[in-house]
From TrEMBL:
Similarity comment: family membership: Belongs to the AAA ATPase family. RarA/MGS1/WRNIP1 subfamily.
Domain of life: Bacteria
Source species of the chain: Lysinibacillus piscis
Pfam families: AAA, AAA_assoc_2, MgsA_C
SUPFAM superfamilies cross-referenced by the UniProt entry: P-loop containing nucleoside triphosphate hydrolases, post-AAA+ oligomerization domain-like
Domain called AAA+ ATPase: residue spans: 39-151
Name of the protein in question: Recombinase RarA
Annotated InterPro entries: AAA+_ATPase, AAA_assoc_2, AAA_ATPase_RarA/MGS1/WRNIP1, ATPase_AAA_core, DNA_pol3_clamp-load_cplx_C, MgsA_C, P-loop_NTPase
Keyword entries, A-Z: ATP-binding, Nucleotide-binding
Length: 427
C-alpha cells in the first residue's frame, strides 16, 4: 500500500485531469489556452478547503513544465523565499505555489515581490479567506486574476471517486474495491463538495472493508459510521463564517424559514454561540423593527435562554427566534432613519440646538436665553398623551424627515400617528 494519502496521490498531474472548475480552467477558457501556449500568469485562488486550489496549482505546474516550488506561508521563512529567488535567477523563471498566502508577512513579501513583478517568479497564491480583506494589496496588485473556486458538485465528486477506484497506479484499482452506486452517492453527498474529504473517506472505507473472494467490500453500517465522523468546515474568524452570518440575516430578511434554519444550524455546529446571538439581536431591530417591536424582546429572551442552556440545547430557543423573525412583518425604517441622520452629520449639515431645548437646570441659564420650552405633558391631545407644537430640530434642518414609515404590521398604526403629528406641525 502507498504511504501517501489517497487524496494526495490522486491530485491531477495536468490540466486535462482537473475535475470540475471548467468555468475558469476548462479547455475552452482563456486561462487553459494561455497555459497550453506556454504563458502562466500569476493568480490568486480563493475558496474553502478541499475545493481544489492545490490540485489546480499542481496541474498548472504539470502542464507548464516550469520548475515548480510549493510553500506554506504559515511555515515558510525568509530563507525559503530567498532559495526560490536564487533558483529563479538560475532557471530564468519558476512557478511558486504559496498556500495560505494571507499569512505572508512583510519581510517575506519584500523579498518576493520584485521578482513576481519582473516575471522571474510566477506566483499562484491560495487562500481560504477573502483576498480583498486578508491578502496584502501589494500581492493582489501583482496577480492578474482572482479566481473564486466553488465547492465541487456531487457529480464531480462521483467522478473523482470512480477515478480513484479504477486507477491502478495512484488509486485503489489494484485492490479491487467494490461499492454500489448507492454507497458512492452517499459518500459523494457526505463530502459536501470537498474532494479531500471524499477521497479520505473512501480510503478509510477501504481499510474498514472486508475481503471477499479477492474483492474489498464495505458494509452500509461501516460507511454510515465513517460519514458521521466527518467534521463541519468553518473557521470562526474566517470568511466562510462571516458568509454564513450574512446568509442567515439575508434569509431571515427574505422570510425564507428553511434557508434561515439551515444557516443557523451550520453556524451552531461551528460552536460560536456569541456571534450568532449578536447577529440575531441585530436582525430583530434592523429587519423586523417597528413592524413588530415585540420581536426584539422575544429574541433577547431566546438569547438569554440559550446562554443559560448552552449548546446543544441552545439551538431550541434560537430556532424559535429565527422562525418567528422569518414570519414576522418587516420594516427597516429605523435603521434608514438613523443612518440618514448620521450621513447628514458626517456631511457637516448640522445646526445650533434651539435655545428652548438646551439645558436650563442651573442658575444663569435664563441669562443665556435658554428659555421658552413648553412641557408637552401639560397639553393632552386625545388618547395620545401630551403634545405641543414647538421647534425641535435646528433651524438649518427644519422640515427634514429622516424617518419614513413602512406600512407593515404594527408600524401601520405608528405611521398613522406620525403622519397626523406631521400635519399638526404644518398648521
Amino acid at each position: 500500500m502507498h504511504n501517501e494519502p489517497l487524496a494526495y496521490r490522486m491530485r491531477p498531474l495536468t490540466l486535462d485531469e482537473v475535475v470540475g472548475h471548467q468555468e475558469f480552467i476548462g479547455q475552452d477558457t482563456a486561462l487553459f489556452k494561455m497555459i497550453s501556449n506556454g504563458h502562466v500568469p500569476s493568480m490568486l485562488l480563493y475558496g474553502a478547503p478541499g475545493v481544489g486550489k492545490t490540485s489546480i496549482a499542481n496541474a498548472i505546474a504539470g502542464s507548464s513544465k516550469l520548475p515548480f516550488f510549493a510553500l506554506n506561508a504559515t511555515r515558510a521563512g525568509k530563507k525559503d523565499v530567498e532559495d526560490i529567488v536564487q533558483e529563479a535567477r538560475i532557471s530564468g523563471k519558476v512557478l511558486l505555489f504559496l498556500d495560505e498566502i494571507h499569512r505572508f508577512n512583510k519581510l517575506q513579501q519584500d523579498t518576493l515581490l520584485p521578482h513576481v513583478e519582473n516575471g522571474s517568479i510566477v506566483l499562484i497564491g491560495a487562500t481560504t479567506e477573502n483576498p480583498y480583506h486578508d491578502v496584502n494589496p501589494a500581492i493582489r496588485s501583482r496577480c492578474g486574476e482572482i479566481y473564486q473556486l466553488q465547492h465541487l458538485t456531487v457529480d464531480n465528486i462521483l467522478m473523482l471517486l470512480q477515478k480513484a477506484l479504477l486507477d491502478t497506479k495512484r488509486g485503489l484499482g489494484q485492490y479491487h474495491m467494490v461499492l454500489t452506486e448507492e454507497q458512492l452517492q452517499k459518500i459523494a453527498i457526505a463530502a459536501n463538495g470537498d474532494a479531500r474529504k471524499a477521497l479520505t473517506l473512501l480510503e478509510s472505507i477501504y481499510y474498514a472493508g472486508d475481503e471477499v473472494d479477492g474483492q474489498t467490500i464495505a458494509s452500509d453500517t461501516v460507511i454510515d459510521h465513517l460519514i458521521s465522523r466527518i467534521g463541519v468546515y468553518g473557521d470562526k474568524k474566517g470568511s466562510h463564517f462571516y458568509n454564513l452570518l450574512s446568509a442567515l440575516q439575508k434569509s431571515i430578511r427574505g422570510s425564507d424559514t428553511n434557508a434561515a434554519i439551515y444557516y443557523l444550524a451550520h453556524l451552531l455546529e461551528n460552536g460560536d454561540l456569541v456571534a450568532v446571538s449578536r447577529r440575531l439581536l441585530v436582525i430583530a431591530y434592523e429587519d423586523i423593527g417597528l413592524a413588530n417591536p415585540a420581536v426584539g424582546a422575544h429574541v433577547l429572551a431566546a438569547i438569554q435562554a440559550a446562554e443559560r442552556l448552552g449548546l446543544p440545547e441552545a439551538r431550541i430557543p434560537l430556532a424559535n427566534a429565527v422562525i418567528e423573525m422569518c414570519l414576522a412583518s418587516k420594516s427597516n425604517s429605523a435603521i434608514l432613519a438613523i443612518d440618514a441622520a448620521i450621513a447628514r452629520i458626517h456631511a457637516g449639515q448640522t445646526g445650533e440646538i434651539p435655545h428652548h431645548l438646551r439645558d436650563a437646570h442651573y442658575s444663569g441659564a435664563e441669562s443665556l436665553g435658554h428659555v421658552g420650552y413648553q412641557y408637552p405633558h401639560n397639553t393632552p391631545i386625545g388618547t395620545f398623551g401630551g403634545w405641543v407644537k414647538q421647534q425641535y430640530l435646528p433651524s438649518e434642518l427644519t422640515n427634514v424627515e429622516f424617518y419614513k414609515p413602512v406600512i407593515a404590521g404594527e408600524e401601520k398604526r405608528l405611521a398613522t400617528i406620525y403622519e397626523k403629528l406631521q400635519s399638526f406641525n404644518q398648521q
